[in-house]
């Protein structure tokens, strides 16, 4: 089954490791993870800058989504 992350991005449910809320305030540690993923080029930003609401951690990439973590959890549960 697949989960729609927003802006026409769809990923396999089986690839999802975690869905994290990143609406402000964001922890320093999580900010470091996002910065490191950006440096290693495994971060996919599918939302406008400043409008990110969740971080979806998958097997090989991290996705910054404009959709809230609660909504993504509901979509995954309804698979």
UniProtKB/TrEMBL annotation:
InterPro entries: RemA-like (IPR007169). Pfam families: RemA-like. This is DUF370 domain-containing protein.
